[in-house]
Amino acid sequence: MNKAFTLAEVLITLGIIGVVAAMTLPSIISKNNTKAMESKLKKTYSVLSQSLLMAAGELGGLDTVDFNDGNDAGMEEMFYTYIEKYMKISKKCVNKAGCWAQSRNLQGIKEGSENGIGTNIITFTTYDGVFVCMDGKAAYSMSSYYGINTDKDGLIFYIDVKGMKNPNTFGKDIFLFGFSDKGLVPAGKDKTQNEVDTNCSAGGNGYLCAAKVIDNGWQIDEF
Length: 223
Description:
The chain is an alpha+beta fold. It contains five helices and eight strands. Helix 1 crosses helix 2. The radius of gyration is 22 Å and the shape is elongated. The relative contact order is 0.13.
């Protein structure tokens, strides 16, 4: 006699495989997407940090950094003369829409203007699809809102690792970094762990999540 599976047994086995796949595939896809975001975030931070340090070196050192939200000319000079030279940028927008998606904080509240975050901004897109928004901030704002203690005005960089794709949310795919006389550091660097954890939760705005990501070895929490 030839031994073989019956049609019923084959169908039952295929059904079980299908159920298991349906249960595990979303988790696998989600983990792969998160890993891709982590890789893009780390790469963008590294390239941007190196670019800014080289720019500061050409300008005379980090002590020369001094920007604020009203200093459009200085910010544009930094971008056009240095950042654009050192980074591979596919598209740029100066105070206009086209390089940034409408963003939200972790409470679901819309953040920023239709052009991007804040006013007097420069937004640009890298060749691997990462969106970056560059905005000048006073020293007080750097400390109070972004957890970076400095005596100098500086720049805040909003990095959206998924570009136009959802969720476009702080702490999920948008992370903030500040550049001043301290170099490029994550928002929340000078806040306590409890302050960072509280901000980077469902009840916070997610501004300080970059500090948590770096503390976690560049791992992004899933909300």
